[in-house]
C-alpha cells in the first residue's frame, strides 16, 4: 500500500492518473449493470502502477526483487464485484480521485477500517492514541467570510476585456499578488478558443507560478503554434502536460519537441484530435523526431491487451 501511494502521488504519475479517471467519468454503468459495460482494464496506466507496487520491492537496505506473472494475468477485471473472488483477509481500498493526496482504508466486511484497526485484528498492537485530542477546537481567530464569487466575476470580465483590446499590461503588473496568478491561469484555461492576445499573459503567469521545469497546460485549448510560442522561451522545461486539448493535432507534437530540447516527458491524454493510428505511424516511421523524449503518455501506448503479432494464416472450424 505504501509503495502504491508513493507511485500514484508522484508528480510524474499523478497527472496521468487524473487524466485516466477524467476520461472514463460517466462512461460506464454501475457495478452489475449490463450496458455500458466497463472494460477489463479501464485505466491501464494506473493499473501498471498497481502492478509495480505489488510485485516490485526496491526498499533501501533490502534485497530487490520482482515477483509474479505478467501484469495482464495478475489483474482482476474492473467489472468484478469486490467480494466475488476468493478473499479471506478483506480488501484494501485506495481512493485516487485526488492522486496528489490519495486516501486509503481497509474492509473485512461492511465496516471501514483504518490501518491500525486492520492490523490490530491480526496482531495485538494496543490502542491507538492520537497526538492531539480529537475534540480539540480551533482556537484561532474568527475570519470574516468574503464573497469570492463577486471578485471572481470581476476578474473574469477584466481578463476578457484586456484580451479583447489586446493589452494585458495592467494584468501582468498584478500577477505577483497572492493567488492572482493561479486565478488568472484558471480564467485563461476556460477560454475556448484561446486568443493569440493571451499567449504573452499566460507565459508571464507560468513564470510567476514557477512553472519552469514542470509546466501544466492541461485543459487549455491552445493551437500548436500557440503552444510553441509559449514554451519556446523555456530553457529548462522537462515535463509538459497538454492533456484534454481538443485542438492539438499529431503533427504539432514534433514541432513542439523541436523548440523544447530539454523536454523528457510529454503527457497527451484526452486529446481528441491526436488520433491513435496517426501517432503510432509517426513514431514508427519517424522515430528520430522523438529521440529526446523518455516518455510520451498517450492512450495509444497505454494498453494492457496486446494484439497477436502473427497474421491469421488459416481458420480451423470444428
UniProtKB/TrEMBL annotation:
Ranges of compositional bias, category Basic and acidic residues: 129-139
Family annotation (SUPFAM superfamilies): RNI-like
Organism annotation: Ganoderma boninense
Protein name, entry field: Uncharacterized protein
Region (Disordered): 129-157
Listed Acidic residues bias regions: 140-156
Gene: Q6FM61
Amino acid at each position: 500500500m505504501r509503495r502504491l501511494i508513493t507511485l500514484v502521488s508522484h508528480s510524474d504519475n499523478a497527472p496521468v492518473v487524473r487524466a485516466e479517471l477524467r476520461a472514463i467519468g460517466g462512461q460506464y454503468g454501475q457495478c452489475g449493470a449490463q450496458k455500458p459495460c466497463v472494460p477489463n482494464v479501464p485505466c491501464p496506466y494506473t493499473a501498471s502502477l498497481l502492478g509495480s507496487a505489488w510485485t516490485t520491492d526496491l526498499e533501501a537496505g533490502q534485497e530487490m526483487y520482482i515477483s509474479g506473472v505478467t501484469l495482464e494475468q495478475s489483474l482482476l477485471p474492473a467489472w468484478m464485484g469486490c467480494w466475488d473472488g476468493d478473499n479471506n483477509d478483506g480488501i484494501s481500498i485506495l481512493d485516487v480521485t485526488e492522486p496528489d493526496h490519495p486516501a486509503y482504508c481497509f474492509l473485512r466486511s461492511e465496516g471501514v477500517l483504518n490501518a491500525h484497526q486492520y492490523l490490530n485484528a491480526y496482531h495485538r498492537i494496543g490502542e491507538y492514541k492520537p497526538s492531539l485530542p480529537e475534540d480539540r477546537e480551533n482556537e484561532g481567530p474568527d475570519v470574516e467570510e468574503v464573497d469570492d464569487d463577486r471578485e471572481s466575476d470581476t476578474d473574469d470580465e477584466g481578463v476578457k476585456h484586456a484580451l479583447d483590446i489586446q493589452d494585458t499590461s495592467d494584468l501582468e503588473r498584478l500577477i505577483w499578488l497572492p493567488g492572482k496568478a493561479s486565478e488568472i491561469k484558471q480564467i485563461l484555461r476556460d477560454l475556448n478558443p484561446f486568443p493569440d492576445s493571451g499567449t504573452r499573459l499566460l507565459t508571464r503567469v507560468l513564470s510567476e507560478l514557477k512553472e519552469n521545469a514542470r509546466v501544466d497546460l492541461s485543459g487549455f485549448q491552445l493551437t500548436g503554434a500557440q503552444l510553441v510560442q509559449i514554451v519556446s522561451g523555456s530553457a529548462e522545461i522537462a515535463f509538459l502536460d497538454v492533456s484534454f486539448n481538443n485542438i492539438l493535432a499529431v503533427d504539432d507534437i514534433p514541432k513542439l519537441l523541436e523548440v523544447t530540447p530539454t523536454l523528457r516527458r510529454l503527457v497527451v491524454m484526452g486529446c481528441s484530435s491526436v488520433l491513435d493510428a496517426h501517432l503510432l505511424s509517426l513514431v514508427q516511421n519517424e522515430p528520430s523526431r522523438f529521440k529526446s523524449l523518455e516518455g510520451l503518455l498517450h492512450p495509444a501506448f497505454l494498453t494492457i491487451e496486446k494484439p497477436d503479432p502473427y497474421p491469421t494464416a488459416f481458420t480451423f472450424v470444428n
